[in-house]
Write a structure and sequence with these properties.
The chain has 14 helices and eight strands. The protein has a single domain, classed as NADP-dependent oxidoreductase domain (TIM Barrel). The longest helix has 15 residues. Helix 2 links the parallel strand 2 and strand 3. It is an alpha/beta fold and 286 residues long.
């Protein structure tokens, strides 16, 4: 079983002090957070390298470790899988995900005869990967296309990651269009960007803890949140420890408070701009 909160890996590579990044991961695990997020491309590999150091001394055995690859071909995916394993200093990844499924053409590339899925399945048979999922932040339609492409190929994902927050509920909503499909098919629901990195907070309509509680209240398996300092980690831990299922009235109040700010995607730049599209800015990663 995974923890209600997961530690996002991107912010670990942005922390000025590498030892502080290690302390963040180990404090999280010691405090009951076992889900750790990362990606092959985060901060040029620094995020995975730091997490690998944090997972020494028996911490790897306490964690459910997820990372992601950008490669769309069998060759690029295989190379990235092996690089991630080396950086993370582990023999296996609990959940490997296809990162940034943000184009309508991504599913066909992943599932092509010489596509990335072939490398992932080869690694899975070799014991390097336990579960397989995908992530994306652009459009529910693209997620649904990925799921349908998988179904047509006779493949079933174990987990799917997407932005889930109070703003998403108002604009091109993953919560409304994708989550019900995953629940029906008994796939893991991984929520990310509960604070919009951090533009939901910039809107001034909700607090950080309210953001986390809203995402936790959805049928999420885990809510992944970035923690670039110990105080931010403590805030996430407080949110998890203080969480109780929200009443219909509490949900309605949050949605009413955020309706005007959220109606046009202004605070969801990952949907409406290329600001968060690493593979758009670095197509060589594919």
């Amino acid at each position: 079983m995974v923890s209600l909160i997961g530690v996002g890996g991107y912010h670990l590579g942005r922390q000025a002090d590498e030892q502080e990044a290690v302390r963040i991961v180990r404090t999280a695990v010691d405090s009951g957070i076992n889900f750790l997020d990362n990606c092959w491309d985060y901060n040029g590999g620094a995020s995975e390298l730091r997490m690998g150091k944090a997972l020494r001394d028996g911490y790897r055995q306490k964690a459910f470790l997820m990372t992601k690859i950008d490669g769309r071909s069998e060759e690029s995916a295989a190379r990235q899988i092996d690089e991630s394993l080396r950086r993370l200093q582990t023999d296996w990844i609990d959940l490997m995900q296809f990162h940034e499924v943000i184009r309508m053409t991504d599913p066909e590339r992943v599932f092509a005869r010489d596509g990335a899925l072939k490398a992932v399945l080869t690694a899975q048979r070799a014991g390097k990967i336990r579960y397989v999922g995908f992530t994306g932040h652009k459009s529910p339609a693209i997620h649904l296309n990925m799921l349908e492409t998988a179904r047509a190929q006779g493949f079933r994902f174990d987990a799917v990651q997407m932005p889930l927050n109070v703003m998403d509920a108002h604009y091109d909503s993953f919560e409304q269009q994708v989550v019900p499909v995953l629940v029906e098919q008994d796939m893991g629901v991984l929520g990310m960007k509960p604070m919009g990195d951090p533009f939901v907070l910039v809107s001034g309509t909700v607090t950080a803890v309210e953001c986390l509680h809203y995402a936790m209240n959805l049928p999420t398996s885990v809510v992944i949140t970035g923690c670039d300092s110990l105080p931010v980690l403590e805030q996430a831990l407080h949110a998890a420890r203080s969480f109780h299922p929200l009443s219909e009235g509490a949900i309605a109040a949050l949605l009413k408070r955020t309706a005007h700010a959220g109606h046009d995607g202004k605070y969801e730049l990952y949907k409406t701009t290329h600001h968060f599209d690493g593979t758009y800015q670095n197509p060589q990663w594919l």
